[in-house]
Amino acid sequence: MKKHIVEERLQKLISQAGIASRRAAEKLIREGRVTVNGQVARLGEKADLARDTVTVDGQPLKSDTPFVYYLLNKPRGVVSTNKRQWQEKRQIVRELIPHEGHLFTVGRLDADSEGLILLTNDGDLADRLMHPRYGHTKTYHVLVTGQPSEETLDAWRAGVTLDEDKAPTAPARIRLHGEKGNDTWLEVVLREGRKRQIRRVAAMLGHPVKRLIRVKIGGLDIGHLRPGEWRMLSAKEVRLLKQGSQPQKP
Question: Which residues have CB under 8 Å from 49's CB, separation 6+?
Fold first, then answer.
């Protein structure tokens, strides 16, 4: 009986093996760092790991790597990356998770911000969680300077055009979450994630951010984890996260 051949695009296989995201895998292929049965691979090529030998930088892909999913409360001052750059002196989030092997960092936060970050070797899910078309909400508790008026909050809710961007920010859900002296805690819910978006919008509206904490990604909640603590996602949480990773209708 002839064995059934299941071929997948190389970038998908590389992503599933936890080496790189699909977009990063395409770059690896273009750079000639991927081979199939000893031949330099081409973008668009497919393979079946049951019969083909696929390597990245000389290391063969493994088809049986179990997926792991970590939820971390990133402390302030820790850099959101899974690979230390030679010039970086600060601690990185990857150093907080005792796991051997590659992990993708899902949901970047700047060093001054804190809160929920996911780390996983499931490249497909990482891509879906990071891509805007899937519309995963991200919820933040934000301490801003002063007491913004309802008119200011309405402007933020509707969308703000930042100086270097052509399109305004997408509509956001904003509500008052509390007060701290003369400052205000807001709950901000976004479906997009431009670089330092909350900080830039708040500063433009005249209420710079003093503290920023991400507390949710989709239905995942940071719960009672203290800064620097982590836990593994339950099977139910992973299933719900995957079910929620469907493209949003235009």
Answer: 13, 61, 63
On the question of a common fold for 8-60 and 69-134+220-243, the answer reads no
Among 4-13, 162-171, 199-208, top mean pLDDT goes to 199-208
b/e for 108-138, b at 16 or more Cβ within 10 A?
Answer: ebebebbbbbbbbbbbbbbbbbbeeebbbeb
Q: How many CB atoms lie within 10 A of CB 249?
A: 5
Q: Look up the pTM and report it.
A: 0.77
Alpha-carbon torsion angle 26, 28, 30, 31, nearest 10? 170
Q: Which of 7, 11, 215, 247 is nearest to 113 (CA)?
A: 215
Residue 120 DSSP code: E
Instruction: Write out the catalytic residue numbers.
Output: 110
CB-CB contact of 93 with 79 (8 Å) = yes
Examine the pLDDT at 57 and tell me if it is beyond 80: yes
Query: How far is the C-alpha of 106 from the C-alpha of 121, rounded, in Å?
Result: 10
Q: State the fold for domain 8-60.
A: 3.10.290
Domain topology for 69-134+220-243: Alpha-Beta Plaits (3.30.70)
Q: Residue 215: which pLDDT band, with cuts at 50, 70 and 90?
A: very high
Distance CA 128, CA 118 (A): 13
For residues 109 and 97, the answer to whether their CB atoms sit within 8 Å is no
